[in-house]
Structures are given as structure tokens and as C-alpha cells.
Design brief:
5-stranded parallel β-sheet; DNA-binding; 11% strand; 19 helices
Length: 407
DNA sequence: TTTCCACCGGAAAATGAGGTCC
DNA sequence: GGACCTCATTTTCCGGTGGAAA
């Protein structure tokens, strides 16, 4: 049986190295996604455009609503947060008032939670359940009207709201004013994709897109400059080698110009150097970080799945390891039912099982393909892993509920 | 050309646990 | 305390679906 305990001398060594070993990170938080830097290179035009639109609110006019679109890691959220932070500072300085609301629609989850989050930003507490969505929205609107303060709403990942709940909330937000109620407001929608537009009423869409800003992906040389600006803030002097910076920029530039990935890469490279007790971040650390990031993603994805999804993966692992390839979903369900009787008491319905298979496929862990065998065999789903099997095995074996089952 | 297999997957309803409101 | 609410998960129902066989 594998020893699950770490000796105290090993722990001593880890802590000793942390205190006495080479210093790598000066301020790691600089490299996290939520950090808003004091300078955002290559986004001057976008910053100016958003700032100009915001001036309407200070003057007391209704600003054009703004739709911001761009691939992940192109700086959309960072630019909006940067501009609004400066905007609110000026507003405060001149003793003006703005009701500012920022919600990430995907993280907030449901439409109701988006409304309660917006309400909380303007000082209105709503119960987290018990009210109808209409009632919650109505209270939010009443508060805006009674405050008589210009309103700025930023809806990040707005596609997540529209594709799941339609455009009712946005419709209400763009139409709460009239001749009697004349409160200046501006809505900023941010999205990674444009597919959600088909779910919107053309009137709401044109209202949201009164102005548009598109964020283009960063080029490798631009990413290199972005990394070079963060390196002196995040690491101690001369810790990161010039060649390592170039490689990190090139690897992330090749992957859709994603600045977030570039910063992840140098952070993980720094962590690897730290664990190894090295005093510099070298090209080899960046290379190792690049291959580790994907592995970590897969193992993390598997271990954070719900129990039944993990049992499905274990069933697929079992059947694959027993020489079956191109496994039919019905066959897999039989194995899954067997395992879940042991682990969870009873299996979920076949329909639910299919839903979980689709989710695993969307996550990129498995590949589900429809195949047709005509009158003889009908139309079936064929399932196989789409990531290296040893990574799944590693995640499943460490699972406290189903790890022993496979042995 | 039609039939039929073996499912697939959308939609709606059910469930159960949290809650508010009057 | 009963009516009504959200929310995530799950079940039930049932109309497709594509291609080999009839």
C-alpha cells in the first residue's frame, strides 16, 4: 500500500527552502488574472474611446451603450476596469456621484444572482432567494430611480446571460427611463464571442451596440513587452532570463495572442524554479511550465468533476484498459451502472448519463461521435478519451471515492 | 423507396433544499 | 404556517435521426 504520509523532516526541508532558498517572487499577485496594472500597453485607442464615452455621464447625458468584443486574454476586462477605476477617482475628486455596477455574468451564475449582485453594488441588499426575478429587478430599478444618480453598468461575459436567459434583463435596463424618469445611464457589455447575438431582439441588440470596440489578439512582440513590464514587479531583479521571456511570449503568441496565458506561463515557470531551489528562471523552466499547464488543467478538471462524472470516466478507463476501443454509450452505461452501485448506491438515469457524457465532451476530456449501423445496429454514440489516458488514470487513482475501485 | 434499429437529445416536470412574505 | 419563490439536479416523455436492410 502506498504511504500517504509526509515525514516531518520533508516538511522541514520544504519550509527551510522557502525561507533560506533563492528568492524568486517579489509579488506574485502581479501575475494573477484579476490584477489591473497601472499601464496597459497597445490599448491606447481602446482606452481613449471608452473614456470619451464615459464623459457623457459626468456631463449628465445618457452615454452611448458600448459593446466590447475580443478573444480571451486580449485585455477587455483589464481595460474596462482600468478606465472605470480612473473615472471613479475623478468623479470622487470633483464630488460628483455615479452608481457603478460591475458583474461577471458567468461567475454570478443565474439571472437572479446577476440582479442581486448589481443591487448590492448600489447599496441595496436583496435576499439571495425567495423573491421572484421580476420582483428583484423591480426593486433594483426603483432604487436607481429613487437615487437619481447616473448609472454605469458593466456586464462582463454578457453572452453567458443572453444565451441562458434571453434579453429580458437587458431590455429592462435599456428602457427604464422615460420623460418623467430621466437618469443618465450607460451599459457596457463585454464578450468573448458573438454567437449570442442570435438570441437577442434586434432592438435590444442595436441599443447595446450603439458603440463597439473590438480587441485584437496581441502579437508575440507585444506580449514580450507586456511580460517585460510585469517581470520587474513580480520577480526580484535579474531572476528571469531574457531568453525565457522571449520563449514565453512566443509560446503564448502562437496560442491566439493570449496575455493571460503568457502571465500564467511565467508564473508557473517561477514556481518550478522555486520548487527546484534554482535562483533563476531559465528557458527550461518555461518549457516545463508549458507542458505542465495542460497536464495540471486535465488533472484539476477531472478531480473537480461531480462524483457521477468521475464514475463515468472510471468506467471508460476500465473498458479501455480491458482492450475495448470505440465504446458504445450503452455498453459504457452498463459498466457505469455497475460501478455506481458500489460507489454511489444507485446509478443515474440513462438520459442523465448522456447529459454528463456531453458535458465531459465539452470539457475536452472525451470524444463523443455519432455513428450509424443502419437497420442492424441503429444510431449510436461512440466514446473514447481525447486526452492522454495516463493523465485520467492519475486523477482517478488519487480519487478518494473511486481510486481503490480500479485496483 | 420504405422500414426499422438503437439510440439521441430537447422540453417539461419533479424533487428537495434553501429561502421570503404576509 | 401556508403560499410562493429560486436553483441545481434529475427523471420522464417523446419526436427525431441516418443509413443498412428489406
Amino acid at each position: 500500500m502506498k504511504d500517504h504520509f509526509i515525514s516531518s523532516s520533508t516538511l522541514d526541508e520544504i519550509f527551510k527552502r522557502a525561507i533560506e532558498g533563492p528568492k524568486i517572487f517579489k509579488n506574485k499577485s502581479i501575475l494573477f488574472h484579476n490584477y489591473v496594472p497601472s499601464r496597459l500597453p497597445f490599448r491606447d485607442n481602446e482606452i481613449k474611446k471608452i473614456a470619451h464615452l464615459l464623459t457623457n455621464l459626468i456631463k449628465g447625458y445618457r452615454g452611448s451603450n458600448l459593446f466590447i468584443y475580443g478573444k480571451p486574454g486580449t485585455g477587455k476586462t483589464a481595460v474596462v476596469k482600468y478606465v472605470t477605476k480612473n473615472f471613479l477617482n475623478i468623479v470622487k475628486k470633483y464630488r460628483k456621484k455615479i452608481n457603478y455596477v460591475y458583474v461577471n455574468c458567468r461567475l454570478a451564475g443565474t439571472e437572479y444572482r446577476i440582479i442581486t449582485s448589481m443591487a448590492s453594488d448600489i447599496g441595496l441588499t436583496l435576499p439571495f432567494t425567495g423573491l421572484s426575478t421580476e420582483e428583484a429587478l423591480s426593486r433594483f430599478i426603483k432604487k436607481i430611480i429613487s437615487d437619481k444618480i447616473p448609472l454605469l453598468v458593466v456586464l462582463d461575459e454578457i453572452d453567458s446571460l443572453i444565451t441562458r436567459y434571453g434579453d429580458t434583463l437587458l431590455y429592462t435596463l435599456t428602457r427604464f427611463t422615460n420623460e418623467e424618469v430621466n437618469i443618465p445611464y450607460m451599459i457596457v457589455g463585454i464578450s468573448n464571442n458573438l454567437t449570442f447575438k442570435e438570441y437577442m431582439d434586434p432592438r435590444v441588440l442595436s441599443s447595446l451596440s450603439e458603440d463597439e470596440v473590438v480587441f485584437k489578439p496581441y502579437k508575440s512582440d507585444e506580449l514580450e513587452i507586456i511580460i517585460k513590464e510585469r517581470v520587474p514587479l513580480a520577480f526580484y531583479p535579474n531572476v528571469m532570463e531574457e531568453e525565457a521571456i522571449k520563449l514565453a511570449a512566443a509560446l503564448s503568441g502562437a496560442e491566439h495572442g493570449d496575455a493571460r496565458k503568457a502571465l500564467d506561463l511565467i508564473r508557473v515557470a517561477g514556481e518550478i524554479a522555486e520548487v527546484n531551489g534554482d535562483n533563476k528562471i531559465l528557458v527550461s523552466h518555461v518549457q516545463e511550465a508549458y507542458s505542465n499547464i495542460d497536464k495540471e488543467r486535465i488533472v484539476d478538471a477531472v478531480s473537480s468533476l461531480p462524483l457521477h462524472s468521475r464514475i463515468i470516466l472510471a468506467s471508460l478507463l476500465y473498458t479501455t484498459q480491458n482492450g475495448f476501443s470505440n465504446i458504445k454509450s450503452s455498453l459504457l452505461y452498463n459498466k457505469y451502472s455497475e460501478l455506481s452501485k458500489i460507489v454511489a448506491g444507485s446509478p443515474l438515469s440513462y438520459r442523465r448519463f448522456l447529459g454528463l457524457l456531453t458535458e465531459l465532451s465539452i470539457l475536452g476530456l472525451i470524444n463523443k461521435k455519432l455513428e450509424n449501423y443502419g437497420r442492424k445496429g441503429g444510431r449510436v454514440s461512440i466514446v473514447k478519451f481525447s486526452v492522454p489516458i495516463d493523465l485520467i488514470k492519475k486523477a482517478i487513482e488519487n480519487d478518494p471515492f473511486i481510486g481503490d475501485l480500479l485496483k
